[in-house]
Amino acid sequence: MSATLTETPPGPPGDEHGFAVRTRRRWPWIVGGIVVVLGLAAALILPRFIGATSPNLVEGATLTIVTAEGNASEQALVEFVAEEVAPKYGITVAFKGLADSTTLNRAVSEGEVAGTVYQHKLWLSQVLEANPDFREEAATPVFRWGFGLWSDKYTSVDQIPDGANISLYSDPANEAQGLGVLERAGLITLDPSIDRWNATQDDIIENPKGLTFTLLDFAAQSRSLQDLDAAVGYTEYYLAAGIDVEKQIFAPPAPDEFVGQLTIGSDYADADNIKKLVQAFQDPAVQEFLRTDPSVKDILLPLDAE
After folding, report:
1. Residues 150, 156, 158, 160: is their CA dihedral positive or negative?
2. Domain for residue 34, yes or no?
């Protein structure tokens, strides 16, 4: 309890000081404190429910397309769309690189960015399986990645020896893609009853050369090529490692399951901005860019690549 001194009229004899002690009312301070606390709580909690408006929903906002950091070819593609195609559809597009797959996909799902072009259908399905709270979908196919069999020792598939050690990527989707390339090269046969785009080494029913397999990640595989008989991987990683494209000894066009797609947040699929963005990536100029521009040569291929 607190007290205050207030001046009073003169009291009875013997009361010469002229002051009396009165108790201060505390309830206005208590109420004020409650209001402050509630205000702070609202400032912290309400944004979680209200959220900032996504640029995807704001007319004239910049629509950011993200890919993995350091991917020069995908950056070149997005920047071409931003400069040469997007203005025709009345939208503004920009590129941004992000460090990892989870951050990138969360940004797309939550509408912080408009989309990404870095993943194929099976990779997206793995992302969604691992992150069930993400809401993303493929909006349109855009390109085929350069992907094939590489060797520092041999110049043709026929030269691959018995017992050769061949590297596949260590993630399941691209391991399946690599097995598909080896089958198309005539080196193995996969069980015809399985979904070959989810194939594993257990699904190999014929391996006449007795090939063995080493699983490596993207960068490690290209760096290790000289220590392997061959490897199946993305052209961009080999060119980035300074390996001549002539060391790619077999490179069939990627199947539709491994086509690079424009992936968007499912909650924004009907937004005008996103509809225009999809139209921009479907513009014929994009396929012409993929056919002719040296910045993506051998790395990003047009959809009609043979």
Report:
1. negative
2. no
Distance in angstroms (rounded) separating the CA atoms of residues 250 and 217: 20
Number of domains observed in the structure of the chain:
2
Question: Is residue 116 located within the same domain as residue 89?
Answer: yes
Answer yes or no: is 44 within a domain: no
- The residue among 253, 269, 291 that closes a domain is 253
Is 41 part of any domain?
no
Task: List the CATH number of the domain containing 226.
Answer: 3.40.190.10
Residues spanned by the domain of 164: 147-253
Instruction: Tell me the CA distances in angstroms from 146 to 50, 95, 184, 199, 238, one per residue in order.
Output: 43, 22, 15, 20, 10
Residue type, 91: I
pLDDT in 10s for each residue of the chain, 306 residues: 433 333 333 333 333 333 233 334 444 444 444 444 434 443 333 333 334 689 999 999 999 999 988 889 999 999 999 999 999 999 999 999 998 889 999 999 999 999 999 998 888 998 999 999 999 999 999 999 999 999 999 999 999 999 999 999 999 989 999 999 999 999 999 999 998 888 999 999 999 999 999 999 998 999 999 999 999 999 999 999 999 999 999 999 888 888 999 999 999 999 999 999 999 999 999 999 999 999 999 999 999 987
* The two three-digit tokens of residue 90, written as one number: 């009345």
Q: Do 180 and 237 belong together in one domain?
A: yes
Question: How do strand 230-234 and strand 165-169 relate by DSSP bridges?
Answer: parallel
| Integer Cα distance of 56 and 63 in angstroms | 7
Q: Are residues 231 and 285 in the same domain?
A: no
Strand order in the sheet with 300-301: 92-98, 62-68, 115-119, 259-265, 136-145, 300-301
Q: Is 191 part of a structural domain of the chain?
A: yes
